[in-house]
Amino acid sequence: xxxxxxxxxxxxxxxxxxxxxxxxxxxxxxxxxxxxxxxxxxxxxxxxxxxxxxxxxxxxxxxxxxxxxxxxxxxxxxxxxxxxxxxxxxxxxxxxxxxxxxxxxxxxxxxxxxxxxxxxxxxxxxxxxxxxxxxxxxxxxxxxxxxxxxxxxxxxx
Length: 157
Fold this sequence. Notes:
Layout: E1 2-10, E2 19-26, E3 33-40, E4 45-52, E5 58-61, E6 87-93, E7 99-105, E8 120-124, H1 138-141, E9 147-152, E10 154-155
Antiparallel strand pairs: 1-2, 1-9, 1-10, 2-3, 3-7, 4-6, 4-8, 8-9
């Protein structure tokens, strides 16, 4: 069994005050990974959620890289057969700006060669169109706008 955590920080460049954490848990390499927790300080509504290539905040959110995509797929929704491993769809913040997350994902791995430990997880300003919006960024990142908060996926002891 593997467990990880990502503690979120908002971005000064976006004047975001987002905070919170997400816990990751995977029982075996073949099992889905559960992602759960609570994020606060978001604008009410839907926000894209992505796992990005780098766990590096040295240059702010710009140093996180693109969505984690080890199989070279187009962006898509979490239930689509064709999608980035890091394309997790949308989370919804209530009127108080709180989003409660409870995701089970078969592509995200903590165990094995495609582990996301050490990478980042990010919340975007806008709704992810799940690759179906027809915008030039739809198949890249769901046209979900700039990152407003992110955390590094670390190991939990």
